[in-house]
Design brief:
Oligomer: heterodimer
Largest sheet of chain A: 3 strands, antiparallel
Structural class of chain A: mainly alpha
Strand order of the largest sheet of chain B: 1-2
Mean pLDDT of chain A: 91
Radius of gyration of chain A: 30 Å
Structural class of chain B: mainly alpha
Shape of chain A: elongated
Mean pLDDT of chain B: 89
Shape of chain B: elongated
Number of strands of chain B: 2
Distance between the termini of chain B: 63 Å
Number of helices of chain A: 19
Radius of gyration of chain B: 26 Å
Strand content of chain B: under 5%
Distance between the termini of chain A: 28 Å
Low-confidence stretches of chain B: none
Number of strands of chain A: 3
Helix content of chain A: over 70%
């Protein structure tokens, strides 16, 4: 047996002898499992509920009677955001974003009914999930039970004896790291089991489960390194504990709150109120697509007449009202999308500021990696909104096309005619299917944060290596 | 008085304690400033939107110049509603960052407007705001623990405890030491708060409630620290027990309570 494994074994023995350490580890395990089970059940119920309502909304849309296609445009449709199974591991922003999207013509609605507005204020204290346990509580456990590692040997004088007997400083520090690292591994185990179960039952893809497992493994290893490093540097165990607790409070509690606050001051968002006024003003300037005589569409009309070689819109082979509706929808959607893109861009700029601070607080980097892999970050939410918007556009334009092809212009402009088309038209519309982002895209989103964590790990490892090498010289 | 001044000099001479108090003062000043800034921003938003809405109302009126019964303008006009932050809002932003504080409503399609939200960045809202309430609830106990966890054990470990206990009027000494630390932590929190209250024009009654809450919360943590500190454990054991309690009270229990609450009263 080499020296460092023997030191690790001794350290383990002292950890096991400490009843508080065993109890803490047990508590963390129970908490992780409880959190995972609860989050999984919540996720399953929410998903089942949303699938049920989605089916009901689909049925109501398809079961409309024979009617004018434009009435169907205004009848609208509901979409429900499905919940990623990995949200059971890291809920991310799920509680803060709406999950119900109402689709209609001439308008882009926001997704409503987020948990944050319909739950108690307790939500703001943090949500219990395996990610929360590993991000916040597990490092604290490592600090509590690892800070004494080297410092204890120094205080009791055994460090000098060990070094005098020819134990290399690096072997000693490596042994302590091995012990604390395996302690962290046990703390990670329940989360790994939960991830493996999610992947094995086909609920989540293996690469993402592995990415999460690696990310959190690196995170805990990082903390084991910090703890051993401070324990090696500090003159007394007490100083090591206080310094580590200060680092933990700063990195895990303070910076993740303070940095987002700063980002929201740096890049201001505009309110829905003013966006609503501006969008509506620009929308009115586009002209009224319900009115075939609106002068705003004169150029479009002229182009259409030239294309078909006729002089009057009554002579067109298709219903002009449907076509002008399509043109109006195209223009208004362009307008809405430009406002939505500007709003999203501002939020992304805010997030980019927070991400840059990952170099200062690895918690921020880990959170980015975790949310991206779990599909509970802003980018994934935006994916849903984009797909919903595309579905809305195709739906409205499909109905406009039916209006232009199935109805005659003369009939459509006659207020005394009912102009219903067969309900089989809406029955033929495809249902909304949310497509999760491709694996490569998700990994791309998580990669910068992963690199940041690895850089942290490498920097600390180099530092620990140098400090441990000098251990023999500094101890008198 | 001289004994108190002497104790104060002892605290200020310990670089760790002095730095901790200064840091707390800095953090709570920053939090109060951040809260005041956010409240001012929300007030500015409300003010800025007033004229914008008047323009919008005028444009609706222009669009429907002839409406014999006034029906169309009544239907299509948006009415501005706003919820201005109170004078004490800077202390705890609460839900004001995710709930709308300005909203337009109109008679057309009223039902759907009940559930309209505000644009906010969910990733930024996730961690919560950095305001005075955060500093008080989460950070202040850490400083109390740092200042008090080794009050007794530190003396024992440096060999002075028996001598101190043998001195006459020993109770007064410990009361003085704890009282001074308690007062210093309270001052680091209260001074920025009072300054912020003056800047915000907060009524004296609201401010005194906030100060009493601060006093009571700090008293709880000081009491707990003393309770643990007088058990006769080593400093490290004290710190571990206190930080463990802190983590359970501020991190684990609220999260578990939220779980219990959503299970007991699910929102569909």
């Amino acid at each position: 047996m080499s020296i460092f494994t023997r030191i690790a074994r001794e350290e383990w023995r002292s950890l096991l002898r400490d009843r508080a350490a065993v109890f803490g580890l047990l508590l963390l395990t129970v908490l992780t499992l409880l959190a995972a089970l609860n989050a999984h059940e919540y996720q399953r119920n929410a998903d089942a509920e949303r699938a049920l309502y989605q089916a009901r909304a689909n049925h109501e849309f398809h079961a409309q009677p024979d009617r004018h296609p434009h009435r169907v445009v205004h009848f609208g449709h509901f979409l429900f955001r499905p919940l990623n199974p990995l949200a059971a591991f890291d809920g991310g922003i799920d509680g803060y974003t709406g999950h119900t999207l109402f689709l209609e013509g001439h308008r882009q609605n926001s997704a409503n009914f987020g948990d944050v507005r319909q739950n108690s204020l307790l939500l703001r204290f943090g949500q219990m999930s395996p990610a929360f346990v590993l991000q916040v509580l597990a490092p604290l456990l490592l600090v509590f039970f690892g800070h004494a590692g080297v410092a204890r040997e120094r205080e009791s004088g055994t460090l000098r004896i060990l070094l005098a007997q020819g134990v290399p400083g690096r072997q000693l520090v490596l042994g302590k790291l091995l012990a604390l690292g395996s302690f962290a591994g046990i703390a990670l185990l329940p989360a790994l089991l939960a991830l493996a179960w999610l992947a094995a039952t086909g609920k989540a893809p293996w690469p993402l489960a592995l990415l999460l497992a690696t990310g959190y493994g690196v995170w805990l290893l990082l903390w084991a390194l910090i703890v051993v490093l401070v324990s090696t540097l500090a003159p007394r165990g007490r100083d090591a504990l206080l310094a580590l607790l200060a680092v933990w409070a700063l990195v895990v509690i303070l910076l993740p709150r303070w940095v987002p606050d700063m980002a929201s001051t740096a890049v201001a968002l505009s309110t829905r109120y003013e966006d609503g006024i501006h969008v509506h003003r620009d929308y009115l300037a586009l002209g009224d697509p319900h009115d075939p005589k609106d002068p705003a569409f004169a150029a479009f009309r002229a182009g259409l007449l030239r294309q078909y070689g006729v002089t009057r819109i009554e002579d067109l082979p298709v219903n002009y009202k449907g076509l002008v509706g399509m043109e109006g929808e195209r223009l208004s959607t362009e307008l809405f999308n430009s406002y939505a893109a500007a709003a999203f861009d501002r939020q992304q700029r805010q997030n980019a500021i927070v991400d840059r601070f990952g170099w200062l607080s690895p918690t921020l980097a880990l959170r980015r990696l975790s949310m991206a892999a779990s599909g509970t970050d802003l980018a994934t939410y935006q994916d849903f909104l984009d797909q919903g918007e595309r579905y809305r556009y195709d739906l409205v334009q499909g109905l406009n096309r039916i209006q232009s092809e199935a109805l005659q212009f003369a009939d459509d402009t006659n207020p005394n005619k009912e102009n219903r088309v067969s309900r089989s038209h809406w029955e033929a519309f495809p249902e909304f299917r949310y497509r999760p982002a491709a694996l490569a895209v998700i990994i791309d989103r998580a990669a910068p944060a992963g690199l940041m964590l690895l850089a942290w790990l490498a920097a600390l490892a180099v530092l620990a290596w140098r400090v441990a090498g000098r251990l023999g010289r500094t101890v008198r | 008085m001289t004994a108190l001044a002497f104790e104060l000099r002892l605290i200020l001479r310990s670089r760790l304690l002095a730095a901790a108090l200064l840091l707390l003062l800095l953090l709570s000043s920053l939090a109060v400033w951040s809260g005041l800034h956010e409240v001012a921003r929300q007030r500015q938003t409300i003010e800025r939107l007033g004229p914008l809405n008047e323009q919008d109302v005028a444009s609706v009126a222009r669009r429907y110049p002839v409406s014999p019964d006034g029906g169309q303008p009544a239907y299509y006009t948006f009415y501005a509603t706003w919820d201005p932050p109170g004078d004490a809002a800077f202390m705890a932003i609460g839900l004001r960052d995710v709930a709308p504080h300005v909203l337009r409503v109109r008679a057309l399609g009223l039902q759907a407007q009940l559930y309209e939200g505000e644009t906010f960045n969910p990733e930024l809202a996730l961690a919560g705001r950095f305001d005075f309430a955060f500093v008080l609830i989460y950070l202040a106990p850490l400083f109390v623990i740092a200042l008090l966890h080794d009050l007794v054990s530190g003396e024992r470990q440096s060999g002075r405890l028996r001598m101190l206990l043998a001195m006459p009027g020993g109770g007064r000494l410990w009361r003085r030491r704890v009282g001074l630390r308690y007062a210093l932590v309270f001052a680091s929190l209260a001074l920025p708060l009072i300054a912020g209250a003056l800047a915000a024009g907060l009524a004296a009654s609201s401010l005194s409630i906030a100060l009493v809450v601060t006093l009571a919360y700090l008293a709880f943590w000081c009491g707990l620290s003393l309770l643990v500190g007088t058990r006769g454990w080593r400093s490290v054991a004290n710190a571990t027990a206190l930080m463990g309690t802190w983590a359970v009270l501020t991190l684990v229990l609220p999260a578990l309570a939220n779980v219990a609450l959503t299970r007991a009263l699910p929102v569909h």
